[in-house]
Amino acid sequence: MARMKFLCDAERCIECNGCVTACKNENEVPWGVNRRRVVTINDGVIGAEKSISVACMHCSDAPCMAVCPVDCFYKTADGVVLHDKDLCIGCGYCFYACPFGAPQFPQAGAFGLRGKMDKCTFCAGGPEVDKSEAEFKKYGRNRLAEGKLPACAEMCSTKALLGGDGDVIADIYRERVARRGSKGAEAWGWGSAYGQPPKGAQGAAPAGGKS
Amino acid sequence: MRRLLVVAAVVFAGGCMEVEQASSPAKQAGQTVKRDANPWSNEPLAMGPKWNKGDRTSWEEQIKKRQLEQHEHQRIYQ
Question: Model ipTM?
Answer without folding.
Answer: 0.84
